Amino acid sequence: MSETTKLAGEDALREFDRIPVRALTLEDLDAIVRIDRRIVGHSRRDYLALKLRQALEDTRMRVSLGAEVDGHLAGFLMGRLYYGEFGVPEPVAILDTIGVDPERPREGTGRALLAQYKTNLRGLGIETIQTQARWDEWGLMQFLAAEGFAPAPRVFLEAPI
Q1: Is 154 among the domain residues?
Q2: Which residues, other chains included, contact 33 with Cβ-Cβ below 8 Å and sequence gap of 6+?
Q3: Is the pLDDT of residue 2 over 70?
Q4: Which domain does 66 fall in, by range?
Q5: Predicted pLDDT at 40
Q6: What is the pTM of this model?
Q7: Number of folded domains in the chain?
Q8: Quick one: how many helices (H) and strands (E) in the chain?
């Protein structure tokens, strides 16, 4: 590892240290909806309330994290764990939803959330995270690529009904 790479990694660790990441609570719903509305342009309150309730009710299989900046929720992450789904014998984590307040760009909030998610998953012996993103969500795709995500060897299929 070069000295430059080592220093960049140390800077990233310091960045994560200054952004507290904690478990979400039901009281975070309004802030989650506000952040998500700023991202997608409309309210998905019912969907997010369901996801949050699921994450909080089954903490063995669901994961929820929130990042705070200046005492306010600045980002959130919700995921779940699978053990042998779709013929895959090894456990895998799914990143369902991640959102960072667009009014607080490039502060490292998303990276702090993913770093904590990865730490939690390593503790459970899970080695792979999967997620989906629309091809035209360039900002999200760039973020995921920078965090080590790449196209998977499986193909996601859909059919109209």
Answers
A1: no
A2: 43, 44, 45, 48
A3: no
A4: 3-146
A5: 93
A6: 0.82
A7: 1
A8: 5, 5
